[in-house]
Amino acid sequence: ISSCGDGSTADSQLSDSAKDAKEVAQDQNEQKFDTTAMKDDVDFAVKAADGGMLEVELGKLALQNAASPRVKDFGQMMVDDHSKANAELKQTAMQKNITLPVAMSDKCQKMYSDLSKKKGKDFDKAYMSAMVDDHEDDVDEFKKQADNGKDADLKSWASGKVPVLQHHLDIAKNVKDS
């Protein structure tokens, strides 16, 4: 889900070719689902896919730019766990005819770009701070979906991810505090 965003600051006047991948997916899904009970589930899936891609890419960045072995280990865990979750979500979305973004949103790309300019201890601090904030948001969003989702499969998927995300949050806080 990620704190990189809901896209609410994006310019709605852009043509499809200039829109970011998350907006394109949202537009395609609006045509299919906006009048159905699944609208909130679809919105959750799009945000989860966008945030999941960011987690993987930032994890890879941590492997390159981090100074601390603990930060690098956390980055590897992000790559592994979120790659697996992203694949599961993609499979579920295909079965439901939900369009997911094929690349990170502009907002997530900006977050990635900002962090990519940092190295060593500066990177460690900024990355772990972002991971704490991000996973706090993720835990809340996934719990909401697990409790209130209409689609049984997405509800179940979100429910299964809450303990993993909580584990990530606990580790992120621990690494950040050290």
Primary descriptors:
single chain; 6 helices; mainly alpha; 178 residues
- Give me the strand/helix succession: HHHHHH
- Summarize model confidence as the mean pLDDT: 88
What low-confidence regions span 5 or more consecutive residues with pLDDT below 50? 5-17
Amount of helix: over 70%
The 3D shape can be described as globular
Q: Compute the CA-based radius of gyration.
A: 16 Å
The biggest sheet amounts to: none
Beta-strand segment tally: 0
Q: How many angstroms does the end-to-end distance come to?
A: 26 Å
What fraction of residues sit in β-strands?
A: under 5%
Q: Which class of secondary structure composition applies to the elements? A: mainly alpha
Number of helices: 6
Give me the secondary-structure topology.
Elements: H1 21-33, H2 39-65, H3 69-96, H4 106-116, H5 120-148, H6 152-177
Structure notes:
With 178 residues, the chain is mainly alpha-helical. It is built from six helices and no strands. The protein has helices spanning 21-33, 39-65, 69-96, 106-116, 120-148, 152-177. Helix 2 (39-65) packs parallel to helix 4. It is globular, with a radius of gyration of 16 Å. The relative contact order is 0.17.
